[in-house]
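It is worth pausing here to work through a concrete case rather than discussing structure prediction in the abstract. The textbook approach is simple: state the sequence, then state the predicted structure, then interpret. We follow exactly that order.
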Amino acid sequence: MPVKRRFYKNDKEEKIFSSWMYDFYDVFGKRHKKSGFKTKAEAEQKEAIAKADYNKGLATSNDNNMKFKELMEQFIKLHAEIYLKPSTVRGYKDHFNLHLKDFFGEIKLVDITPVIINRFMENKLKEGLSNKTVNHLLTTLGTAFNWAINNNYMMYNPVSRVKKLKVQRKEMEFLTEDEIKRVLDVAEKEYPDFYPILITTIYSGMRRGEVLGLTWDCVDFNKSIIKVRKALYKGVLSTPKTDYSIRDIQVPSKLMQVLKQYKKSAVENDLNLVFTQKNGKPLDADNLMSRRYRKILKLAGVKKIRFHDLRHTYASLLISKDLNIKYIQKQMGHSSFEVTMNTYAHLMPEVYEKSKLAIDELI
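Step two, the predicted structure:
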């Protein structure tokens, strides 16, 4: 209920003027207080509006002052850490701490405009960040702002009015069957500890995190199946990239023989991981690439390709065997038939030629 406030000039209590104010506490014990109203009716009206705004989650007198750093802290704590994978949370935190905090941290949400975001992008490009990385930062910003809108902290998302930078798509590469043989021969001879990882990746099509997160309970030696149920990211075991990535992969019996032999000397560990360091700790993906993978490619005399291109290599092997596209989709863990076709259509000229012949033979 609004109360009357009195103001005095000095200790003799000579009254100068008086006004009305409202003063209430919300459900979290936070005080909401404002004075300067000329009449009780005006104070009651403003108090009712303030309470209604608070109940809607608007609380304009406070939220208009919310800074970006406060939003990100809430977004990570109340959304990301509850609903998202550890790897995704880590990505948001890295983006905030390394790039967003210094630029946006002290800016109020109501003051963030598309122009300011464009200036941020310009700064990051001058720092040497790639177009792709800057776009990733925009995605993080947009996701956080969408959460803010859903929780009534913002009215619109300024990122929606910012155009993303053009990114030149990296050409897909893969090893030929002859190159695969040379690479595996070098690995088996020079780096026998890395050989099981390499052959598993090439003949399963798993992503790097899925390979490093593979556990023995997901290797079915009897059925020659590898079950993709986990992924490793920066030493933390979590679920794969998407729900569609959870799959059972049929693999060659030769691969099963290699894993069965490898298991005899594998290091026991708390996570039951197939591939670990000598002390049983999870492997560091970046170190693995620099100390093993790139050296093997060089010794084998093959072109330098990304580790992820081994996944494309696997897809090219399946396509070369003229396997059903739906089967390839399941093996790769794609969300749909269309994704498989859009990704690997350029590797399927024979498929199109056969389809053309079949069409001609309809009549």
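Step three, interpretation. The longest strand covers residues 15-25. Residues 3-62 form one domain.
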